Amino acid sequence: MTGRLGVQVTPWSGSRELVSLGVRLSSVVDTVWVQDQMLARNVYGLLAALAHAGCGVGTNVTYPIGRNPIEMASAAATISELLPDGRELAVGMGTGGALVNSLFQKDKPVSAVREALQLMRALWSGARVELDRFPVLGRALSYKPGAVAQLTYPVERPPGIVVAGVGPRILAVAGGYADGLISPSNMPTLSRAAFRTGRFAEVSGLATALAARPAEAGDLRLIFGINTSVSADRRAARDQARRQVALVVGNPRLWPDLERVGMDLASAESVKRAFDDGEGVAGAAARCSDDLVDGLVIAGTPDECAPAIAELRDLAAAEGYTEFYIGGPLGPDPLEAAELLVTQVIPKVWPERAGRA
């Protein structure tokens, strides 16, 4: 199966380790996606280092809330100058998750995403951009009335912009304005259970995104993330997955989605109680049922993960997805996980890439 393949890394390790991890993975993947976690290692610094080391790179995902899209546009354009030939920079964007919610007031976040991608593209085109055209960003960032912005250098390789989200409004923005859509499998409406409903396009909102696509815009890139935790130590891999799942299902706003696809709502409620009782991520993770873990993250040894990843890839491909990435948490030890992905998992799932390792 052809098409772009990537891997998503999280910025919790040291910068040198993350760059080494990305370089090792780049032998078998096209794109190293890095999460934007504002209080962790800076996403643009990491992307620049990875690009200079020879990797294709992307944010998965960043957000215009608490950030200035003018700076985001210049940062991405600068990174594009470091890319080797044949590699891509993609800007994955959304409205921000729990960290953003804890730090910033959100004023029309979906509109902010739409305005940000329009502003960034306009800057990359070399145009003089009237900032009054972006009222939501202007209010949030105090743009001066009548101000005009223009980059001082040409952008020879404008990045693509792909949008992540599960609500109907953000999906309509993805279809109507972006180059592509990112769909991570650790969201209930994008999970293995969602495919098994037989109504994936409806349940996931994929139909909404495609319906919003203007005829003149060309095909929407469909990028599916397969969240994975792999280790030679099966229990450690599953414990790591359990921690991530707890952070997802402990959010009551996602409970209707869990119920919609037939997942374990009672366990999710128990996870939320653990957070409320001050038990932290460890206590909440202990209350995650195997149904929730296996439904949202593929976790286990390489021999267990490879066929499960292949199954989920094939389900997504049947719905029209043509690009894939292995998503976080990757595993309890990121460097071990990278080595296992390169040498054991990816060669089994994508055998045409085995010779690159």
From TrEMBL:
<dbReference type="Pfam" id="PF00296">
    <property type="entry name" value="Bac_luciferase"/>
</dbReference>
<protein>
    <submittedName>
        <fullName>LLM class flavin-dependent oxidoreductase</fullName>
    </submittedName>
</protein>
<keyword id="KW-0560">Oxidoreductase</keyword>
<dbReference type="InterPro" id="IPR050564">
    <property type="entry name" value="F420-G6PD/mer"/>
</dbReference>
<dbReference type="InterPro" id="IPR011251">
    <property type="entry name" value="Luciferase-like_dom"/>
</dbReference>
<feature type="domain" description="Luciferase-like">
    <location>
        <begin position="30"/>
        <end position="317"/>
    </location>
</feature>
<dbReference type="GO" id="GO:0016705">
    <property type="term" value="F:oxidoreductase activity, acting on paired donors, with incorporation or reduction of molecular oxygen"/>
</dbReference>
<dbReference type="InterPro" id="IPR036661">
    <property type="entry name" value="Luciferase-like_sf"/>
</dbReference>
